[in-house]
């Protein structure tokens, strides 16, 4: 049995550098083993110790230049709770709209500039040439919206640096950045989120500008969804790509987009205001909803370092704000203690940690994947997240999500994107060989397209709320707070890539402990103490290889498609390790014929 080892390092420059090692059985054309690992230590938790708590809002945004707003949001919520301050409703609505603006540019970057090129004509022709003739014959269902009659025309339009879709989407992403800058005073790394609200004035003129931009971005959503619906259909019906990146539907969503009337930042009310979010919180195990209680979800978070370059830490002996003891592995009780070592696949091999969720009722822990697929899945199962405004609507329930958009006439849009439309997302009907509900590479990308539409509808709703508050004269934007000597705060929120948590402990008025678990930390987790692979590792192991040509020349395009379906950033060049040779292989360049 011929074996081939490939190491991709680096792959991404978002949320830290990472690499992937895989072993491929050339005869069966399957990945038999794989490891995902972080290659960079940042130490923000250590940097924050001893600082003034509100400083964390501005410092933690520097974790990422692509998704700073979710870090600002999570940190602001942790500060709200720790400092005992409830933002005014208008401030919460403005925070929500700022977050929507972030996601409305982030999702299309992934779908068209980061992961999208691997489905473009350039790369398909290079690595899966047999797909091309099928693409020339396969008719698109959503031609009337995106304008391409055959899949070949569509994937050609996605060619990097030259394709019509690639370039057009860049222009629309810029409009979402304008919206984020309008709300945050600048972008990236906004200046307006503070404990107790926002630090900027806001009135009707600003709201009108925001509404105009959201109309254009909602029209853009029609393009995003229709393109990825047709690509998904082609991959299922013509290519048989459903087994690539397959793993059991074990998912986590913290939920996001708070109800301004419900959110009060109080830990004791966390279950109630969590359930009123526009995206529902939820833990999903084997396709079933285990809990939707945000407080219980917070209590179940655990972090281990069995295979991470860290030392174990001494228990801090903290209890939660209601006086219940916290386990040593909960983020409120954790300290970051780096310990670099040589890489050892059987020992420590990653700067990532091993986040897991512990089910107290069943006395077991779960390896959970986070991301847009988790947000949609939880909301569709629970059926309590609904969005209404004069312009758009979202209905959830019965394993479905329906998103309705109005006419979106704008000089920024093609006329085919003007008309009213309703999209429906359904929980994927895909299963493992053991008949367990599952998700795959196709569905992760498809969910991201629908998540863009979901956030556009939520942006309309936030603007409607803002106008109502201003109309009533309810224009308070910030509330003062006292600085407690000792307290805890948690900001559980959703970034583009999934569940994002910030945990803050205050002692003698200063930051005594700060822990951050990013979506990428959940997804690229190494093995845990039970030997269970992390979500990305699990998706890679046993995945089929569709790459054509001589196996000696394989570069692992299917593995890269899996990795990027979790939304790491696209690097034009990756390094590959084959046996004892380090090879620099260009997968994509502007001169590719």
What does this structure look like?
The protein has 593 residues and is an alpha+beta fold. It has one domain: Cytochrome-c3 Hydrogenase, chain B (Orthogonal Bundle), CATH 1.10.645.10. Helix content is 35%, strand content 20%. It has 17 helices and 23 strands. The strands form seven sheets. The protein has a five-stranded antiparallel beta sheet. Strands 9-8-7-13 form a four-stranded mixed beta sheet. Strand 14 and strand 15 form a beta hairpin. The radius of gyration is 23 Å and the shape is globular. The protein starts with a strand and ends in a 7-residue tail after the last strand.
Spatial arrangement of strands, main beta sheet? 3-2-1-22-23
Number of helices: 17
CATH superfamily: Cytochrome-c3 Hydrogenase, chain B
Which regions are unreliable across 5 or more consecutive residues at pLDDT < 50? 569-578, 589-593
> Which word captures the global form?
globular
Give the proportion of residues in helices. 25-40%
- Binned strand content: 15-25%
Q: What is the CATH architecture assignment?
A: Orthogonal Bundle
User: Structural class, judged by helices and strands?
Assistant: alpha+beta
The end-to-end distance, rounded to whole angstroms, is 36 Å
Mean pLDDT: 93
Q: Using DSSP, what is the number of strands?
A: 23
Major sheet description: 5 strands, antiparallel
Tally of discrete structural domains: 1
Which CATH class? Mainly Alpha
Q: What is the CATH fold-level name?
A: Cytochrome-c3 Hydrogenase, chain B
